[in-house]
Here is the input.
Amino acid sequence: MNNNYDYNNQFYRVPPISGDVNVNGIPTPVPYAENVLKKNIGKYATIYMSYSDSVNWKDKIFSGIIEDSGRDYVILKDTNSEKRTVLWTLYLDYVEFNEAINF
Here is the structure.
């Protein structure tokens, strides 16, 4: 039986990262994509997206400097121009950084 499922409240609990609990023994939150992106504004990132409903754009890769990030979007600035791209995190697969990141 899966211990992460609460039959009374009907929700999935995110398991803690090994040993990460606060003083009350409650697991600390896992860093979600929106938080990681927000804390790494100004860093170069490669973002991998999947658009499952698209015929022409199944998978797409975007690279640039993270200029802003919010609950459901990230804005990348092209390093070679003034072009900016708004990406909806709904389609986000994963993000790569070439340097240390902040959590």
